Amino acid sequence: MLSRRHLRTKVMQALYARQQNPSANIIGIKKNLARSVKDAHKLYLFHLYTITRVAQYVFEDKKIQAKKLLNSIKEQDFITKIFENKLLQSIYTDVPFQEFVKKEKFQHLLTNDVVKKIYRDLVQDKAYIKYIENKDSKIKDDQYIIKFLFTKKMLVNELYTGILEDIFLNWFDDDDLAQAAVLNKITQYRVGGKGNYNIVFNESDWKERINFCYELLEKSIKHDETFVELVSQQLKNWEIERITQVDIILMKMALCELLHFPQIPIKVSINEYIEISKVYSTPRSKDFINGILDKLMKKLKSEGRIKKIGRGLVGF
Description:
This protein is mostly helical and 316 residues long. The protein contains 16 helices and no strands. The chain has helices at 4-20, 26-68, 81-84, 86-92, 95-104, 106-109, 112-123, 126-133, 139-154, 158-167, 171-188, 203-222, 224-233, 245-260, 266-280, 285-302. The model has no long low-confidence stretch (mean pLDDT 89).
């Protein structure tokens, strides 16, 4: 599912939109933020659903090939290893995921022709052939082939991206987050991992995450002048207006967490915004943001203004 970094990114985008339209109503901004998080989560789940559909097509292919009665068919054409992939089995058996798929009618949104095209492209690739011929596959092999299917076959397929564009109105804005969530989910998989495949936001997950977004948004706005002043003090020979808007927003959000989110460790906050800057800002932004935040963290800490409790004390 969407990580805290993805949620921070959504808040950053909401703050950026507000900066472009200062008169925007905060209630409307919060509604748009909640809808945006929900849409990105749905897109992430649709990607996972498509992966499972492509893997399941091996059985359809087997039927088609059997009807043709072709003597030239190799035995490997009928190997169902991709379907039996342990990682995918965890998704197939995830009840909340299957219920979400049914509720959103994903099966009607993804045409069989698109699934077939992606599957055909996959099974002809050397990477897939190597995978099914490997008799001693490890979890890393299962993870690799699913990442390969997702990044090298699905995301470059124009028919598939066309479907995404038709279904998801903000596909262009949300897909980076959805893709990252899919890749994180694949990477995190471990056989028998306790609670590992909590794929869908359940009610408590949703409430906790959206409340985090709202709190970060509201406090970032409420204390904006304080954050601007703090950042400005660290800009030697620079006017704050000359710094990219995204960099300023990210630094202010980081300061918000340092000063007003006592249970979030300092390192977590700083590292998260540096990572976000790598994707959404300039190549030099990560070093710039890291330098400014490091100075501010030391200053605020020495002044006793950063107060952490519980988990937030890690590394304090």
